[in-house]
Amino acid sequence: MSRLLESIKVLDNQIHNLDYHKDRIIKSLRTAYGNHANSPIDFDLIKKDIEKPDGGLYKLRLTYDESRYNYELIPYQIKPINSLKIIEGRDITYDLKWADRDCINQLYNQKATADDILIVKDGLITDTSYCNVALFRDGIWYTPQTPLLHGTKRAQLLEQKIIQEAKMTVDQISTYTQCRLFNALIDFGQIEISTDNMRY
Predict the structure, then answer these.
(1) Same domain membership, residue 88 and residue 69
(2) 19 and 93 part of one domain
(3) What is the pTM of this model?
(4) pLDDT for the residue 54
(5) Are 169 and 94 in the same domain?
(6) How confident is the model over 74-86, as a mean pLDDT?
(7) Does pLDDT of 1 surpass 70?
(8) Which residue, of 56, 75, 94, is where some domain finishes?
(9) Looking at the structure, do residues 193 and 94 belong to the same domain, yes or no?
(10) Domain range spanning residue 44?
(11) 53: helix, coil or strand?
């Protein structure tokens, strides 16, 4: 079995949204290994180990299972995204954040000249290759009820009522004007594109 994965934002030596990550880690462990599973991750130890004198933006990449974990701190730069190729995901499942992303990588390799992909499953909008999405219409940002992965930033934005869930089909894209991509390391509003740039 592949190990589980968690990607966490570290900015100027501060770990962001840690409670949301801890919550997902426990839920993922218990889904994958049973209700007895508990997190083996010692975040106090990690915090002491990852401080950088120059601060900056890093990804804390954790891989783990029910008994052990590994981590590394990787400098992070946000890649510009200006276009999305709509790809049918068919039988794809990624409800847990596994380190093995082969199912997503196979779809990503079909992006042609686009910067990333928008994965559609059974006609419903899900995610890009590494971000949740929200689309803008009539003053409201909507996020799909059917993401491949329930992201930690998504959970925070829903709780703060910055976005709201909706059933979103691929043939409705033209009724929205803008699309934002976000995840644990990319804040809401840092990547925004026109829905005109979301095409098959």
Answers:
(1) no
(2) no
(3) 0.95
(4) 84
(5) yes
(6) 97
(7) no
(8) 75
(9) yes
(10) 4-75
(11) coil
Q: Please provide the average confidence, as pLDDT, over all residues in the chain.
A: 96
Half-sphere exposure of residue 175: CA atoms within 13 angstroms, side-chain side: 9
Whether 46 and 122 share a structural domain: no
Indicate whether 57 and 89 sit together in one domain.
no
Q: State which of 49, 75, 101 marks the end of a domain.
A: 75
> Is the pLDDT score of 66 beyond 80?
yes
Crossing angle (nearest 10°) for helices 152-159 and 18-33: 120
pLDDT at residue number 51 = 87
Record the tokens describing residue 42, joined without a space: 């010692």
Residues 20 and 107 in one domain: no
Shared domain for 179 and 93, answered yes or no, is: yes
User: Of 90, 112, 92, 111, which is closest to residue 102 (Cα–Cα)?
Assistant: 92
Average pLDDT for 116-135: 98
Judge residue 158's burial from the number of C-beta atoms within 10 Å of its C-beta, 0-12 exposed, 13-18 middle, 19 or more buried: middle
Alpha-carbon distance of 156 to 159, in angstroms, equals 5
Residue 146 to residue 120: CA distance in whole angstroms = 10
Per-residue confidence band for 52, with pLDDT thresholds at 50, 70 and 90: confident
- Give the integer Cα–Cα distance in Å for 78 and 137: 25
CA-wise closest residue to 163 among 173, 175, 178: 178
What beta strand segments (E) does 39-162 contain?
57-64, 69-75, 84-88, 116-121, 124-128, 132-137, 140-144
When divided into structural domains, the chain yields a total of: 2
Considering only residues 53 and 47, tell me which one the structure prediction assigns the higher pLDDT.
47
Cβ pair 73, 53 in contact under 8 A: no
